[in-house]
Design goal:
The protein contains ten helices and ten strands. The protein has 339 residues and is α/β, with parallel strands linked by helices. The strands form two sheets. It has a five-stranded mixed β-sheet, with helices on both faces. A five-stranded mixed β-sheet has the order 8-7-6-9-10, with helices on both faces. The structure holds 5'-O-[(R)-(carboxyoxy)(hydroxy)phosphoryl]adenosine and zinc ion. InterPro entries: ATPase_NBD, Gcp-like_dom, KAE1/TsaD, Peptidase_M22_CS, TsaD.
Length: 339
């Protein structure tokens, strides 16, 4: 059965809307159109996301973006079969905008709605690429709020293998960048600067690298970067690129090593990388090299779909429904799960 699914993402600082067509069976659903508005510029002046401003901007953007994807795909709102939205985790006020709009549209159209877990959206985002992965695979989920390794046997069949015990990888990028005065969002800024520096200039810790398990810890690294920055004092400015490169190398080393351990432990030959940090070029290069050596296939979402977007939410909903894992519901008394 063919289903037209509208997906809305509003968990943090990007408003994303997309239309996905599911044809049922085992065929991978297809992305018809997606539109995104990033609030980065708006929050930049404050050095981070201001929740109240985020919510207000989602309100301004979500309907125009919905109109844009309908126009681009040549579909009519009345033909949408299911309205999916990000139910959490994320900022409560921001989530409520997407959930409210999705449920209002669903109620008005008489169509069911489906709340999607934001991380499942990231996890399944590589299925939006031209060369989608096959199950089973190991997933490395690296975003601003999460760092997890998972065994994925199918839609909804996820086994957590390990995760961070403190900061997420994206947080480590963002906080280190902030210490170096690189502004928000720190990850991409630090990574750009790192290209001009030496990764071996500073000796930084690789926490839990040899712990034997698949857990991560990045809080100590952030402290080490702070100590190094203080020690440099006035010399920091001249050594910033080196410190950035060394920090990036430390984070990437741990992510790659643990991913290889997860592959070894599970015996799987396929890995999927998802979440904002998956856009990191150094991570991609290191992981590609390591996986090539071990005859492991790596799948990434397309670069522009690594960070938050509506396409991954519509895709996750489509795959859930197609797998019979979940049914959309007509209870429009929506709720959100910030944590
Ligand atoms: O998945 P995402 O868009 O939002 C969350 O769900 O958290 O991830 C955002 C995170 C931020 O911490 C950001 O700094 C990081 O991903 N990020 C990067 C890069 N692009 C985004 N970190 C390192 N290198 C990048 N190129
Ligand atoms: Zn995200």
């Amino acid at each position: 059965m063919s289903l037209l699914i509208l997906g809305i993402e509003s968990s943090c600082d990007e408003t994303g809307v997309a239309l996905v067509r599911s044809t049922g069976g085992v065929a991978v659903p297809t992305l018809l159109a997606h539109a995104l508005h990033s609030q980065i510029e708006m929050h930049q002046a404050y050095g981070g996301v201001v929740p109240e401003l985020a919510s207000r901007d989602h309100i301004r953007r979500v309907l125009p973006l919905t109109e844009a994807v309908l126009a681009e795909s040549g579909q009519r709102l009345a033909d949408v079969d299911v309205v999916a939205y990000t139910r959490g985790p994320g900022l409560a006020g921001a989530l409520l905008v997407g959930a409210g709009v999705a449920c209002a549209l669903g109620a008005a159209l008489g169509k069911p709605v489906l709340g999607v877990h934001h991380l499942e959206g990231h996890l399944l985002s590589p299925f939006l690429s031209a060369d989608p992965p096959e199950f089973p695979f190991v997933a490395l989920l690296v975003s601003g709020g999460h760092t997890q390794l998972m065994r994925v046997d199918g839609v909804g069949r996820y086994e957590l293998l390990g995760e961070t015990i403190d900061d997420a990888a994206g947080e480590a990028f963002d906080k280190s960048a902030k210490l170096m005065g690189l502004g928000y969002p720190g990850g991409p800024a630090l990574s750009r600067l790192a290209e001009q520096g030496s990764a071996t200039a500073f000796k930084l810790p690789r926490p839990l690298l040899h712990s034997g398990n698949l857990d991560f810890s990045f809080a100590g690294l952030k402290t080490a970067v702070l100590t190094q920055a203080k020690k440099l004092g006035d010399a920091l400015e001249a050594r910033k690129a080196d410190l950035a490169a060394s920090t990036e190398a430390a984070i990437v080393d741990v992510l790659v090593k643990k991913t290889l351990t997860a592959l070894k432990q599970t015996g799987l030959q396929r890995v999927v990388v998802a979440g904002g940090v998956g856009a990191n070029r150094h991570l991609r290069a290191q992981l590609n090299a390591a996986c090539a050596q071990n005859q492991v296939r790596v799948h990434y979402p397309e670069l522009h779909l690594c960070t938050d977007n509506g396409a991954m939410i519509a895709m996750a909903a489509a795959m859930r429904l197609q797998a019979g894992q979940q049914t959309a519901n007509r209870d429009y008394a929506f709720d959100v799960k910030p944590r």
